[in-house]
Amino acid sequence: MELNVEEWDEEAIKIAERVRIWSISQIETPNPIYNGPACPFAKTAWARQRVMIHVTPDLDTVTEIKVFNPPVDDFTHVIAWTGWREMSEDDFADWVFTQNENHFGIWISAFHPGFGSDAVQDETDIFSQVDDMCIILVQEYEHLVKASEAIKKTGYYRTYTDVEMEVLDERKEKLNAWKRKTSTCQSESYKEGWAEEH
Fold first, then answer.
1. Does 149 share its domain with 94?
2. pTM higher than 0.90, yes or no?
3. Residue 189: pLDDT over 90
4. Structure confidence by residue, pLDDT tens digits, 79-99
5. What string of DSSP letters covers 164-192?
6. Can you tell me the distance from the alpha carbon of 62 to that of 56, in angstroms, rounded to the nearest whole number?
7. Cα–Cα distances in angstroms (integers) from residue 128 to residues 109, 117, 122, 145, in the given order
8. 172 is in which domain, residue-wise?
9. Which helix (H) or strand (E) holds 81?
10. Are residues 167 and 87 part of one domain?
């Protein structure tokens, strides 16, 4: 059943409240898998008002945020996408991959309710409270990698497999390669501009 504007606004507020409660109870509290909170930075980020929740049925909202309101430094956009049933988990995974291949300094992480749907849930499942929506995080790529490197020393990744650690290393190297490329382009543009002026 399609909601009118007023009904949608009320529903969106309820969903946003659920996302905030989920963060408090699942993301900001200790979890044995991570040797601490699922996100060691979440509690401080909320306290410093460095998080914004968006509730939308339209996946295009994510790309609009990425292009027109990209996060800077430690700011995070948390999107609760309610239209996830319109896309399979495989198609969604391909969408996330494509976004991150063309990242422009912004990284997208996500949980689709179809991911691991056959797995048995337990007390360590941090998405059990929001398994009826798709949670998408939009973050500055460089800050994300720096934060990931910082928590390596805490034992955060102690349960990660070799393959999962390789993914993190590849993500870091991909950022470094992009920074080298953009730095070279900026340097060449500067030289061209200087030559034209002189």
1. yes
2. no
3. no
4. 999 999 999 999 999 999 999
5. HHHHHHHHHHHHHHHHHHHHHHHHHHHHH
6. 9
7. 17, 11, 8, 26
8. 161-198
9. strand 76-81
10. no
